[in-house]
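Before surveying the methods themselves, it helps to consider a single example record, giving the amino acid sequence and backbone structure tokens:
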Amino acid sequence: MYRQFCRNLKHFLSIMEYGNGKKSSRLKNAEVLLPLTDIEQYEEYKANSSEAYGVISNLIYEISQHSVNNPALKKLVWELWAYGFDIEQLEQPPPRNYDIDEVVKIADLMLSTHYFN
């Protein structure tokens, strides 16, 4: 499921980049998920106690809070944890530059095995 998510997200982003040069809100929200596709970079952030490590871990936490009624998202969060991603809520998360409800919808869409090839 994780590999399908990564492949679908990268393909979705490449499709959404076409247009008039302006980033749509859908593209901006999808880009929030991009750090979830790079395990090595995340491990580097984690080893260096980078701020990005906390932001990504917090994003996964936020997605997990929306996965209660969504088995696919629940499985994604579990797989992220299995790959070494942490699921932690930041005490003082940075201001969001995304709509978490839209990010969750896009993440769910990217889990579809039939959406993109």
Observations:
- Residues 2-16 form the longest helix (15 residues).
- Residues 46 and 53 are 5 Å apart (CA to CA).
- The two ends are 14 Å apart (CA to CA).
